[in-house]
Amino acid sequence: MRFVVLLAVLAVASMDNALAQVDSLGFPRTVQAGSAFSVQFEGNGQGTLYIVGPGQVLKRDVRLGETTYFSASSLCNAGHYLAVLSAGSSSSKGEFDVLPASKPADVSFLAKPSRLPVGLRNGITGAVYVFDGYHNLIASPMPVQFELANPSGGTQTRSTVTRYGAAWTEFDSTPQQGVDKFLARIGDITSSRIVRQVPGDPCGLKMSATQAGEKLHLVTEPVRDCSGNSVPDGTIVTFTQTYRGAQSTVDVPLKRGIAEVEMPSHAGATISVASGVVLGNQIQWER
Amino acid sequence: MLRSVVVLFAVAMTSFSTGFAQVAVHVTPPDVNGTRTLQEQTATAAIRDYLEAWQSFKTALEQNRIDVLDQDFIGTEKDKLIQTIQEQDAAGIRTTYQDRVHDIQIVFYSPDGLSLELTDNAEYDVQVLDHSKSVGTQRVRTRYIVVMTPAETRWRVRVFEAVNE
Q1: CA–CA separation, B62 vs A56, rounded Å?
Q2: CATH number of A106-198
Q3: Is the pLDDT of residue B1 over 70?
Q4: CATH number of A2-99: 2.60.40.10, 1.10.1740.10, 3.30.460.80, 3.30.200.20?
Q5: I need a labelling partner for A120 at 20 to 30 A (CA). Which of A89, A169, B42, B94 fits?
Q6: Taking CA atoms, what residue in B is nearest to A76?
Q7: What is the Cα–Cα distance from A25 to A92, expressed in whole angstroms?
């Protein structure tokens, strides 16, 4: 007897649950975007059905008391829809939601910057928005993996979960210059961007001086950044000579990693070297 | 900071009431998922532009006019709204959306500052008109997820999607 009562309670509960799955017009509470569904409207005779939402509008003649079928491509845009069934002088209404497909099909990946110096903390950022095949934002949480791979095989990885369809990450730029691949992966979907890491400012800029006939020959050591990457040719190095209150300056582009120049030789002159805001060593010329 | 945002939208409420019916706008302090600091001016501008986008959206669907979307919508969202308007026009339908309540919260600001996401627990009336004859009106409560991106002088809506929760 107790078993029969339990069955009856379960039967009523499941019926309530089933009723909760449809609205007053008979529409399912939720429909997945792009999927087929059907509705049976009560009554008899003809009616006009309106389904309206910001993403889509349908108007259809329907026969009451019969099942109305909606093909797979009927409603593809996720959102909240109002359904109005107009029959004669009466109308009835219902509401339902079209949900994004659960499988991601597209990812919008914003990666910044495309070029940056090496060794910059949190210098590379990426943000993704996840969409289904109908370009509906998938708001339910989805795991996302970000990868930053450099040409020498080193890979930094971060895993996160989308919130309201969005996720983000940030990486340090690596100590090595080169072209890195920045990748976002959601399920089977990947999107990648190229991040070019260039040498930073020169570090430990050092020159030497030698007498060359009447002139003074100044040459730098190979110019590198603080991570040991060669600073690119063309970077300007400035040599400044100060002698008896007068100052002369020569700007020289790096060639094959070094900068060299000949300046007038004056005993007692002070010569300094710099590149941008980076100062190198200073020489007091006594010959 | 956000207190002033709420004050701003108290003012916004008054100005929106001069249109049709009064719109109650409430702004919840941001729960921003990201490292970039959300400046007050950014938050107020984005919310102001979102509310203005609602005005464009309402006008566009009520009058079946595509041109009014240009200022406030961009990308796929604009395409979807254009498609809706074309469907309405073909079926002889117009829809009026009268927003009553917006409860807005910014939930994401991308690290590069090139996108911002907000949620809006919105309440509005939808009326369906078939060849200018009303066939039904319904009050709707739903939550929108909105993604906005900055354009030359304003934020534009790129995603405008009601979500089931």
Answers
A1: 14
A2: 2.60.40.1930
A3: no
A4: 2.60.40.10
A5: B42
A6: B80
A7: 7
Q: What residue has token string 């002159």?
A: A269
Q: What is the pLDDT of residue A184?
A: 97
With CB atoms and an 8 Å threshold, state whether A99 touches B164.
yes
Q: What's the pLDDT band for A234 if we cut at 50, 70, 90?
A: very high
Please state, in angstroms and rounded to a whole number, the distance separating the CA atoms of residues A193 and A208. 43
How many Å lie between the alpha carbon of A287 and the closest alpha carbon of chain B?
Answer: 56
Tell me the per-residue pLDDT of B20-68, one tens digit each, with 9 for 90 and over: 468 999 999 999 877 788 999 999 999 999 999 999 999 999 999 999 9
Could you please state the CATH topology (level 3) that the domain comprising A207-285 is classified under: Immunoglobulin-like (2.60.40)
Per the CB < 8 A criterion, the answer to whether B140 and A96 are in contact is no
Contact criterion met (CB below 8 Å) for A244 and A221: no
DSSP string spanning A166-189? Answer: EEEEEEPPPSS-EEEEEEEEETTE
Task: Return the pLDDT at A24.
Answer: 73
Spacing of C-alpha B94 from chain mean position? 19
Domain locations along chain A: 2-99, 106-198, 207-285
What per-residue confidence (pLDDT) applies to A6? 43
Residue with tokens 């997820």: B145
Structure token digits, residue A104: 């991601």
Contact call for B136 and A53, based on CB within 8 A: no
ipTM at complex level: 0.89
From chain B, the residues in CB contact with A99 under 8 A are 164
